[in-house]
Design goal:
The chain has 2 domains: 123 residues, no CATH class; 103 residues, no CATH class. It contains 3 helices and 19 strands. The strands form 6 sheets. It has a 5-stranded mixed beta sheet with strand order 5-4-7-8-13, with no helix packed on it. Strands 15-14-16-19 form a 4-stranded mixed beta sheet, with no helix packed on it. The longest helix is centred in the middle third of the chain and has 11 residues. The radius of gyration is 22 Å and the shape is elongated. The two termini are 37 Å apart.
Length: 310
């Protein structure tokens, strides 16, 4: 079968197989990815707040709540299955029905002694059947690795950017993605592959029409020389067990005299504004919130794990 090189150590050594052709050598597919990957040149680092401290994040154009299947080859005993040195496999590209920047991991366990390569989901499933491997097992583990153009860049520090580096095989081709989940604890998706969603609060003073966000107002509110700061507040931090990169926007009207990033922000935690129940129902705190609306806007905003990296 094309793309599969089965190796048995007792018979012969197997050289590392060559990667498949690059997706980016196909002008049509490269243009499709560039048009729909959610990146426009360099994705800047924006500033917001969580749990009383600053946090930095990116905004990626994406509205889907559904993760797509991502197949990962692994080996192990029982429920433990450690990934092997083989790229992940997906079946969809940006701009296609079924594509998502979020992935639900499906574990595939090759037989002992297999040291080969598969370059498409179709090929992988054929090998599972031909070799009698266990059927792919859906997990609750979420992967956040949006496939991107090679020209896409993400700002990770002052005058420092990175491009997509993780290899992913798609229908016999090699693409690259930004792996925002590589340095984070495992995150969960629902059994159906639907994403968990938390709130991000966007504040507007009473009597004003624009939120307390420099990039919207096109004004350097805190005088630091850029227009990337805000009084936006995320409902969960990266270290929280219920962190997710997918957020539903809550538009909040606050008192007209509220101190914000133009001085020292009075609100830097969701609990400064709302009582939050275990099921994430929010109740505004008296005199701190004049009005609010849980919008239908979903935003893909991964937080930065450390300066200089994703």
């Amino acid at each position: 079968m094309v793309g599969i090189f089965a190796c048995v150590a007792s018979i012969t050594a197997c050289a590392s197989p060559e990667p498949p052709p690059s997706l980016y050598d196909d002008a049509t597919l490269a243009a499709q990815v560039a048009d729909h990957d959610g990146f426009d040149g360099v994705a800047p680092l924006f500033q917001a707040w969580v749990h009383g401290r600053e946090v930095f994040y990116w905004t990626i154009d994406s509205q889907t709540e559904q993760a797509m299947p991502v197949y990962r080859l692994c080996r192990g005993e029982g429920s433990r299955c450690e990934p092997i040195d083989h790229p992940i496999l997906v079946d969809h590209l940006p701009g296609e029905d079924g594509y998502s920047p979020f992935g639900q991991i499906y574990e595939v366990r090759p037989s002992d002694g297999w040291d080969g390569q598969v370059t498409s989901v179709e090929e992988l499933l054929a090998e599972v059947e031909a070799q009698g491997w266990p059927a792919p097992r859906a997990t609750s583990e979420m992967m956040h690795c949006p496939i991107a153009s090679l020209d896409a860049q993400v700002e990770v520090g002052a005058d420092t950017t990175v491009g997509p580096t993780r290899s992913v095989y798609v229908r016999g081709l090699e693409a690259r993605c930004f792996d925002f989940s590589a340095s984070r604890p495992n995150r969960a998706v629902l059994p159906s592959g639907e994403m968990f969603v938390r709130h991000v609060y966007v504040l507007t003073r009473e009597g004003e029409t624009e939120p307390l966000m420099e990039q919207v107002r096109m004004t350097d509110l805190n005088g630091d020389g850029d227009m990337l700061d805000s009084n936006n507040i995320f409902g969960a931090a990266l270290e929280d067990s219920d962190y997710t990169p997918l957020w539903k926007m809550v538009a909040v009207t606050v008192p007209a005299d509220l101190a914000s990033i133009d001085t020292t922000p009075a609100y830097t935690d969701a609990t400064d504004m709302f009582d939050i129940a275990p099921d994430y129902t929010i109740t505004p705190r008296t005199d701190r919130v004049l009005d609010y609306e849980i919008t239908t806007n979903y935003i893909n905003c991964p937080m930065q794990s450390a300066p200089g990296s994703l």
